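Subject: sequence -> structure tokens, single chain

Hey, anyone have a minute? Need the predicted structure for the following. Not urgent.
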Amino acid sequence: MTSVIDTIRLKAEEYYSEILAIRRHIHKHPELSKQEKNTMEFIGSKLREYGIQFKDNVGGFGIIGIIEGQEPQTLCLALRADMDALPIQETNDVAYKSANPGVMHACGHDVHIASLLGAAKILNGLKDQFRGTIKLLFQPSEETYPGGAIQMIRDGAMENPKPGFVIGQHVFPFLSAGEVGFRPGMFMASTDEFFITVKGKGGHGAMPQTAVDPILIASHIVVALQQIVSRNANPLVSTVVTLGKFIGEGRTNVIPETARLEGTVRTFDEQWRARVHELLRQIANGTAEAMGGSCDITVDRGYPYLFNNEDLTGKLINFAGEYLGQNNVKPMEQKMGAEDFAYFAQEAPGCLFGLGIADPALGVGPNLHTAGFTVDETSIKTGMGLMAWLAVNLLNRNR
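Reply:
Had a minute. Here:
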């Protein structure tokens, strides 16, 4: 008799060409956050084809699928994939290159969708091999605040049935195809964005004494904000304050009325996170006023830090080692990137793990969120098979 692990491996191989075509279709037809209607309908068509019940338009264009095994009330496990693309013009020269100008799946969400659909097809054929219920969460709008996770939660995604665990995977270009990575405990940072408009008094560049230069004020604010990390943060609490945009639309001989700064804050401590917001306002306002100007500052609160439940992650590491071989299961470091999967992990013990996508022969390729981002597509076979294996084992062996 074929064992469950061998069955999953065989099905991952059997379904690979179909799931590969799904990934390429989604890659060719990317949709931005809050615009994923066609992606939702395509996923729905596949779930319908597989005979999996689902509900769409959850938290926007999200989908929830349900697969019931034996004794469905015993335990519920949620598996999550995000759906949205990024406003990037793709430079890859492939047959399935993005057909939507200025929009690209540059963060691997097409791989996430395809892998979860592949896992769903495998699991739907194994309903007599596991106890409990599997909830499939296809989540929109991961790339744009407030994020699709919290919107799906508000629409009841984590209720009826309520998951006892939630698992997700994310592509990582520094892991090779066939490898996965896990990090128990603190994994990814919280993320907030801030926007500062510095107000001065415009004037002629040849007569600066008649003006209040907002570009000079903004420059001092940029430098002053660096003391948040260097002189206010606990060195043992990772913190990033980065300014990524500085606009002062004057001319060579024109001092403008205003200047604009935009940036991000990342950390792993909620009390300190709130304190950073206070310091941003104090430093920006104080610097502007001291130099004769003023400023408006807005802080958009983003995603919380992501904590991988240690007990759950430990189990998944062992299960992944059984499926892939322990040498292909790698430890991962904390990341200052952010993920709204963190909201799901606040509702139930959760784990987001890394799926390797680098071609072993070529090494690490272009990074996430770049126009040349690409994947070794054999990683999809790993992703769908491993997700199915983790689900079956967590439901059957969680005692």
